[in-house]
Amino acid sequence: MTESVDRQGRVALITGASRGIGAAIAETLRDSGYRVAGFARSDAAPAGVLGVACDITDPQAVDAGFATVEAELGPVEVLVANAGITRDTLLMRMSDDDWQQVVDINLTGAYRVVRRATRGMVRQRFGRIVAISSVVALLGSAGQVNYASTKAGLIGMMRSVARELGGRGVTANVVTPGFIQTEMTEVLDEATRKAYAERIPVGRMGTAADVANAVRYLVSDEAGYVTGAVVPVDGGLGMGN
Ligand code: NDP
């Protein structure tokens, strides 16, 4: 029997699926035939996506959220750790709270959902994990010491998972988006956006769909030999790093 490349109906869970990049990933996978669930602090999710209210800083909520997804859709085969926040300010002004909140959501939150998802993946001998990092993980970014640290941490996390679980059919990869048009970047003023766009070789900001298309490949059945990769979706902004 020949197996189809993207087996219809695999279960995918996306954190931070209520808007922005996470919503685009959820829609793209839904449209490719996956059964998709999304976590966010509210249960908002795109049409056709099971929205589960789950704050990923709360270990019990994560466990309960997975239990809901497993009961409604089945074991999670694809996990996209996408939820993230910024609390930007220069290092000398950064409070411990600015640091801790970003670490709790972006890094510890990702660790929690990855750890929980791998249980079922190992049992099924199939899993696809993608963490949404950022171009600043490797470039560094003034005013984002907290954020860039978490985004670099995700690379170490995914590469370690890739080594631990590669033999069990589980891949773990990282996508590093550049400057993508979402609510997270809407807060930036016009001059800053223009200055960024000038530094991007393709000459424009990215869209959430640009990121979702790369994720779609990495989570597909056909990407089984791609693991521990850091895939830039940044219009060339981070080239050479
Ligand atoms: P948005 O701010 O638009 O969306 C963030 C998502 O994360 C929302 O769905 C939000 O839902 C969810 N979220 C935040 N906190 C929690 C929490 N504690 N528990 C569960 N869900 C949470 O961000 P983007 O779409 O722009 O970014 C998505 C990812 O891509 C982030 O990791 C970001 O760092 C990364 N990225 C973004 C870039 C950009 O230019 N936009 C560039 C590079 C990387 P809710 O608030 O309802 O909980």
Could you write a compact summary of the structure shown?
By secondary structure, the protein is of the alpha/beta class. 44% of the residues lie in helices and 15% in strands.
Question: How are the secondary structure elements laid out?
Answer:
Blueprint: E1 11-15, H1 20-31, E2 35-40, E3 50-53, H2 59-72, E4 78-81, H3 96-124, E5 127-132, H4 136-139, H5 145-165, E6 170-177, H6 183-186, H7 190-199, H8 208-218, E7 230-233
Parallel strand pairs: 1-2, 1-4, 2-3, 4-5, 5-6, 6-7
The structure holds NADPH dihydro-nicotinamide-adenine-dinucleotide phosphate (NDP).
Residues 15-16, 18-22, 39-42, 55-57, 82-85, 105, 132, 134, 177, 179-180, 182-185 line the site of NADPH dihydro-nicotinamide-adenine-dinucleotide phosphate.
Keywords:
241 residues, 8 helices, 44% helix, globular, disordered N terminus, binds NADPH dihydro-nicotinamide-adenine-dinucleotide phosphate, SDR, KR_dom, 3-oxoacyl-(Acyl-carrier-protein) reductase
What CATH architecture label applies?
3-Layer(aba) Sandwich
Bound molecules: NADPH dihydro-nicotinamide-adenine-dinucleotide phosphate
Radius of gyration from the alpha-carbon trace, in angstroms: 17 Å
SSE pattern: EHEEHEHEHHEHHHE
CATH superfamily: NAD(P)-binding Rossmann-like Domain
| Overall average pLDDT | 95
Strand content: 15-25%
- Annotation, overall tally of beta strands: 7
Overall helicity: 40-55%
Q: Strand order within the widest sheet?
A: 3-2-1-4-5-6-7
CATH topology: Rossmann fold
CATH class label: Alpha Beta
Main beta sheet strand tally, sense and closure: 7 strands, parallel
Q: What oligomeric state do the depicted chains represent?
A: single chain
End-to-end C-alpha gap? 43 Å
| Low-confidence blocks of residues | 1-7
